[in-house]
Write a structure and sequence with these properties.
Layout lengths: L16 H6 L4 H4 L16 H4 L13 E8 L8 E11 L2 E10 L7 E5 L13 H6 L8 E5 L14 H27 L5 E7 L1 H12 L6 E5 L5 H16 L9 H15 L36 H11 L2 E6 L5 E3 L11 H7 L9 H14 L15 H11 L7 H5 L3 E7 L7 H15 L1 H5 L2 E6 L18 H11 L7 E5 L11 E6 L1 E2 L3 E4 L11 E4 L2
Parallel strand pairs: 4-5, 4-6, 6-7, 7-10, 10-11
Antiparallel strand pairs: 1-2, 2-3, 3-5, 8-9, 11-14, 12-13, 15-16
């Protein structure tokens, strides 16, 4: 998860004469020729007619259209014309992009950039998972995304500064301007609003846009942003990951993970006033599983001393002496509740000890191989302190931790960050620390006017777990209401559903919770239906 230029034929494919006369490649993107003269917008025709031959000239950044395709309506997704193309930035980095154009009568006059994940290298709008997480209100937008400038897996492309810049923030900026130009030409009018939503690395690129191109978006949604990737790789490798994979008795199987998750829930579940399988009051949960220590032979009903140390390291602050961007050092522990999600297996332990293919391990090893210049470097023997300048180069480019968001705020931009508190890929506390630095820089009252961080307990990086489904929140609709009407996201509700009915496919709501502004969590009021959000208040204690 974490991939014949045709001659211009249709009226909608002709270049904008006004832009050509002005001699500016960016005039079309910046505002201007739709609706003027005798040009008939392509969207005035049915997509089946307009799409196959659609072309437009003078796209910014040297972008070219390679082909178009019509995607039929399927489920909640409407029929769209997908315009595909590329931007050749350098011999080492070509950005492949896609712009999805709904029918003229369907388009809501807004665009949505969708960020990728992992090391990118694929087009998120082509991936059903990304189409799912953006929420149901997204399908009337012009959507756009890119592979961020590379298709190769891994991180070897990071040796190129151009490829790094594209991955870090330039690709989304370039494709936004290309997509804006295409939408303006296709519909005959410039988009009224522009939004960005991304998860994990896509959340990092969303934050990067607010810092590097503060005029690009009216609203930015960063879900569980991997904003400090090099700090993550530097600090997890020599500590948690080295311990887990140094010997089998430190590694936790799915059965051992489930054993710990049950014990942690028993110890901490009712700290939020209700025993419901959700660890809401994460800050108050200090459970240490010494009661699970094996007293005889190792089996699935106990934990070895090495496994207990693995659990401790998951929650511990890591501090390898390597300084990255903004003078940052170290990496925080993870939030409670991740063991009850798919995160511990996916991101820490992997499916087997021998495979060593948890995502956190693979990401840290890919970075180690890049900075060492050795494609066979072994993470377990890698010493990040010997490669400080190499890691700093990556961090200066990729990190999204500049606290000066004044230009974004001055432009009227809104920022919405969401986190699952059980995330065991990228730490919620790193992003919380970053937003504290923004408040220190700009003042808390000013930041409250344009940025919010929301969280949901007992949900992991894969957006699963016993908590409420984050996709049910529809963060994009909340952002649009904030931008358009000034309605801040203060009364959002998330829902957990039962598995879909085998016959009808419908999903029955099981419970609801308020979505609280971090560090608050949903606390049961002690009365009322525990399945309803109104029976809970957002609290810090």
């Amino acid at each position: 998860m974490f991939f014949n230029l045709s001659p211009e034929g249709s009226p909608g494919g002709r270049p904008c004469l006004l832009a050509a006369a002005m001699g500016t490649l960016t005039a079309l993107a910046l505002g201007g020729c739709g609706g003027g003269g005798d040009k008939v917008p392509a969207a005035s025709q049915p997509l089946a007619q307009a799409c196959p031959a659609y072309r437009t000239a003078n796209l910014p950044h040297g972008a070219t259209i390679t082909h178009t395709e019509l995607r039929a309506a399927q489920g909640l997704l409407p029929e769209v014309c997908i315009v595909r193309g590329e931007i050749v930035s350098s011999p080492q980095s070509t950005i492949h992009w896609a712009v999805e154009l709904p029918a003229g009568g369907t388009w809501n006059t807004k665009t949505l950039t969708i960020g990728g994940g992992g090391f990118d290298g694929f087009i998120p709008t082509d991936d059903p998972w990304y189409q799912h997480i953006i929420g149901p209100s997204a399908h009337t937008y012009v959507k756009m995304s890119s592979d961020s400038g590379h298709v190769a897996p891994g991180f070897a492309w990071g040796a190129s500064d151009v490829a790094l810049r594209n991955h870090a923030f330039d690709a989304n900026h370039f494709v936004l301007e290309v997509g804006t130009a295409i939408a303006t030409d296709f519909y005959g009018k410039r988009p009224a609003r522009r939004y960005h939503i991304g998860h994990s690395n896509g959340g990092r690129s969303a934050l990067a846009a607010t810092q590097n191109y503060p005029r690009d978006y009216d609203g930015v949604i960063a879900m569980e942003p991997a904003m400090s990737q090099q700090a993550h790789q530097i600090n997890l490798g020599p500590t948690l990951l080295r311990h887990v994979f140094s010997k089998p008795e430190n590694w936790l199987s799915p059965a051992k993970i489930a054993l710990y998750a049950k014990a942690e829930a028993q110890a901490c579940d009712d700290l939020d006033g209700l025993k419901d399988g959700i660890i809401g009051n994460v800050a108050a949960c200090n459970y240490v599983p010494t009661d699970l220590l094996c007293t005889g032979a190792d089996n699935d009903s106990c934990l070895t001393a090495g496994q207990i140390e693995s659990v401790r390291l998951i929650y511990a602050q890591k501090d390898v002496p390597v300084t990255v961007s903004q003078g940052a050092r170290g990496y925080p522990g993870y939030g409670r509740g991740g063991a009850a999600t798919s995160d511990w297996e996916a991101y820490v332990f992997g499916p087997s000890f021998e495979a060593r293919d948890s995502f956190n391990y693979m990401a840290a090893q890919a970075a180690a191989r890049l900075v060492e210049g050795n494609p066979n470097a072994d993470l377990l023997a890698h010493d990040p302190t010997q490669y400080q300048s190499q890691y700093l180069r990556l961090a200066h480019m990729i990190d999204a931790n500049n606290p000066d968001l004044s230009a974004f705020a001055d432009n009227g931009g809104k920022l919405l960050v969401w986190y699952g508190m059980g995330d065991t890929c990228v730490s919620v506390y790193r992003t919380a620390d970053y937003l504290d630095s923004v408040r220190t820089r700009l003042g808390a009252s000013r930041v409250q006017g344009f940025a919010r961080m929301l969280s949901s307990p007992s949900i992991g990086h894969n957006l699963d777990g016993p908590g409420t489904d984050p996709v049910s929140i529809d963060l994009l609709a909340a952002m649009d209401a904030w931008v358009e009407r000034g309605t801040a996201p203060e009364r959002l509700v998330a829902t957990r559903y039962a598995p879909a009915d085998a016959g009808t496919g419908t999903r029955r709501p099981v419970l609801q919770r308020p979505v609280c502004e971090y560090p608050k969590f949903p606390r049961y009021d002690g009365r009322g239906d525990p399945a309803k959000a109104e029976s809970f208040s957002c609290s810090t204690v």
